[in-house]
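User: We ran a pulldown and think these components assemble together. Before we commit to crystallization trials, I'd like a predicted model of the whole complex to look at. Sequences follow.
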Amino acid sequence: MENILFANRKACQDLKNLSKTFKDKKFHLKNLIADTNRLEKFSLKSKGFFYDFSKQRLNDLLLKKLYELARETCAKESFSQMVKGRMVNKTENRAALHTAARDFTRDHIILNDVDVVSEICRVNKQIKNFSQNVRHKKICGTTEKPFTDAVVIGIGGSYLGGEFIYTALKYFIEPVIDLHFLPNVDIDNFGQVIKSIDPETCLWIVISKSFTTTETMANLNQALLFLKNRDLDPSKHLVTVTAKGSPGDSPSDSRLDSFHMFDFIGGRYSVTSAVGGLPLSLAFGFDIFERFLKGCHKMDLHANNAPAEKNIPLTAALIGIWNSNFLHYPAQAIIPYCSALSGLAPHIQQLYMESLGKSASFDGQILDNQTGVIIFGEPGTNAQHSFFQLAHQGSPFPIEFIGVINPVYNKIQAKSKGVYNHQELWANMIAQAKALAMGKDDDDKAKYFTGNRPSSTILINDLTPESIGMLLAFYEARTVYEGFMLGINPFDQFGVELGKILASNLREHIREKNKDAKYDFNSLDSTSKFYFEILFKGSL
Ligand code: F6P
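Assistant: Here's a predicted model for the assembly, 540 residues in total across the polymer chains.
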């Protein structure tokens, strides 16, 4: 891609000019949505996935300009380069091949003399065998009791996607092995997790690509001590998911097995690799994991092959850029009207903000435009009773509503006010989008709603692994597209490093104090000294 800065692109100049006209009253959403053809014009469908952007602040001309931006930035070409295994992660000189983790149609993808496809198949076969043996009670713990639970130790990309998918699929199918997640170095996270397991029937899955992440290593140490104190052998209770050759892959360590993750799949894009594959296959069976992969692949094919004007993740990415860079919204909420999707927003927070929260272009130039915005969310209708006051009358931000057409629960149920719960849920979802767009006049200013607040609505059929896979892959593709069009690298995350270095410097002082009670914190800055003294004193 040519190294023209985003703000200097021709399409950006045009969009900037157009954005001024959108201040006109005739472009208020209440006027735009009065057009009865609008939904048909501004929505896209791919089998099993519907995207309605008719309540976004745009019109035909604007949309045309947005697609020009996609063409000018060669977004589709970059996406296809990514799928082919080219070095799209330029700052780290790596490919970004998460799509290969669910593409079983290709025989080979050769990367640095390694066949990516056969490596992925090898690990998947290993996951299938291992999970079957555990689920069929052929692999048991120290006391020969079958496993009933697994604690997943890992943080960030080695945690959030797995928890999101586990929580969602648990509504669809009962797990054989219950998963518990231990991401935080907070000892109370550990304390809570061990309350809900029987040590003899618990497997510990340590997931870390680097196997150096402080939080994960600290929790691994807790797990090892926990096992030792109960005379349980780690080689019968512990498995690792890690990069080949990492400290967690050492053959001398005692563990049941080790599953590889790869350099060419970034942490936050890794839920379709062994990171999600192992825990999800233990919980639900490898066949369910495979169905989830098939859903992802279906969306990947659409994202790669559909022309720009029919491409759902590409269109959503363009709308994201329009909202952030031209209408200047600083945030975006993700509101699934579905409790099973409660882990979606936390996962997309990392996926999107770690990918797009950047201040430099992919070729190292400082940017003066907006990159990623703040993502947050909560299932509806809960969100309505939480922060929607601000959404309607406070600082505006775009919202993405997600509706699931068929709930899992199909037993006899009551009607309230003449409708079933699921129908009530949908009535609310539709009403919110409408209220945000329309607003309401009122002489009483406390009851006045400005309206003109944009939203999109996504629909999926159900909570099957295929539908959840499509939803996940939609967000991945959309994030990548947005990164490519903004001219940033959506695969690196240097912004997380500075805090880690400072924490490691401070840790040295705590270590000294642990060794020698007389050690003082005088060499530290006054604020750090203040906090450490309180920590050691144990009260204010
Ligand atoms: O701190 C951020 C991060 O590097 C993420 O990008 C990554 O997913 C997470 O930490 C965990 O890293 P690892 O899998 O190496 O433990």
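Residues 98-292 form a domain with the Rossmann fold fold (CATH 3.40.50.10490). That may be worth checking against your pulldown data before setting up trials.

User: Thanks, that helps.
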